Amino acid sequence: MSAKPIAGPEIERLIQLLARLPGLGPRSARRAALHLIKKKEQLLVPLATAAAEAADKVRVCSTCGNVDTADPCSVCTDPRRDPGTIIVVEDVSDLWALERAGAMSARYHVLGGTLSPLDGVGPEDLNIAALVDRVVSVANSENAVKEVIIAVNATVEGQTTAHYLADQLADTGVKVSRLAHGVPVGGELDYLDEGTLAAALQRRSDF
Amino acid sequence: MSAKPIAGPEIERLIQLLARLPGLGPRSARRAALHLIKKKEQLLVPLATAAAEAADKVRVCSTCGNVDTADPCSVCTDPRRDPGTIIVVEDVSDLWALERAGAMSARYHVLGGTLSPLDGVGPEDLNIAALVDRVVSVANSENAVKEVIIAVNATVEGQTTAHYLADQLADTGVKVSRLAHGVPVGGELDYLDEGTLAAALQRRSDF
């Protein structure tokens, strides 16, 4: 690889920034930059505008930790959502994934990560105290939270965090639940790990 | 999939535009957008600026068809490059790939595609006449072109285009060559197609 840049500095800068996106390496960033340049009016100019507008408008919701262009976010202010159910997720991407599934019309709470003592992430680094406050503050109102669904990843860190959360919420009296383990829909048994298969057998349901 | 947008319109617009980049689908575009939003100052704001600057500055080189922020491009104006050799490529991405290889310090000519009668792409749709003009115009000067290397893809369309180009250049008297066929460096014979193996055997060199 020669170190000299192939194109002008503005193009090189665009390539460098695109290469920092997840899912794009140096080679695909170059391809993406070239695609943007070739479709300048349809893609590059709109992207510049959209990125500037998003940067200007984006807010972190002070209630739940979601990102949106309004604070409180559109999920927190949606009157059709059940205020009695809060789904706790690690990250905004998990919130988006659950919204795509469209299975529940609940509110959310974004932790911003998981407890990880090895990486120095303790309870005070996550959005946990705000969750307990949120549950306690509405305890005797008509918007009282009835159930907190802990929807963290099924990793060791996720499960540690889930146990800590359940402990913290124990005194509030709300029901605390978590996602089911089992065979993914469309999944083939042969490709699943032993833990998942054991959980699916153990928690089998009547046919 | 619910049709309703998950986040504000500015964020949705950013996701939609990112999803149109090669290598990013709808899901990875959402992940990329979220990454940009989370790193607003380090990534989203610089990307907006870089995209706007690139859109403002980018030019198609009127000599060779390369994209750059100058016209003629930095390759065409580089005095250290041999003006006697022109490497003909299909696309700017091929020019970049050959520059990364750094094997020759020549000039380029970007065709902008390949002949494809089925898709209605004829010689007049490609940057072919300009190549012949370019060769003819300097014929008796000190910058006379001595060799045109046809570096198109080893596809049917590429080879058809190569033959057409060789015909067009026949009267100019310049040497016309093309890339070698053979075993890719690091390639395993077992995974190569018959055509490549036959070519590698036929064009074998002395050890």
Give a description of the structure.
Two copies of one chain form a homodimer. By secondary structure, chain A is α/β, with parallel strands linked by helices. Chain A has two domains: 9-57, RecR Domain 1 (Helicase, Ruva Protein, domain 3), CATH 1.10.8; 67-178, Dna Topoisomerase Vi A Subunit, Chain: A, domain 2 (3-Layer(aba) Sandwich), CATH 3.40.1360. Chain A has helices spanning 9-18, 26-38, 40-57, 92-101, 129-137, 156-169, 194-202; strands at residues 59-60, 67-68, 82-89, 106-110, 147-150, 175-178. The first copy, chain A, has a four-stranded parallel beta sheet with strand order 4-3-5-6. Chain A has a two-stranded antiparallel ribbon with strand order 1-2. In chain A, a hairpin with a 6-residue loop joins strand 1 (59-60) and strand 2 (67-68). In chain A, helix 1 (9-18) packs across helix 2 and helix 2 (26-38) crosses helix 3 (40-57). The first copy, chain A, starts with 8 loop residues before the first helix and ends in a 5-residue tail after the last helix. At the A-B interface, helix 1, helix 2, helix 3, strand 2 and helix 4 of A face helix 1, helix 2, helix 3, strand 2 and helix 4 of B.
Question: Mind telling me which CATH architecture of the largest domain in chain A this is?
Answer: 3-Layer(aba) Sandwich
Count of beta strands of chain A: 6
Number of domains of chain A: 2
Kindly state the percentage of residues in helix of chain A: 40-55%
Strand order within the widest beta sheet of chain A: 4-3-5-6
CATH class of the largest domain in chain A: Alpha Beta
Oligomeric state of shown chains: homodimer
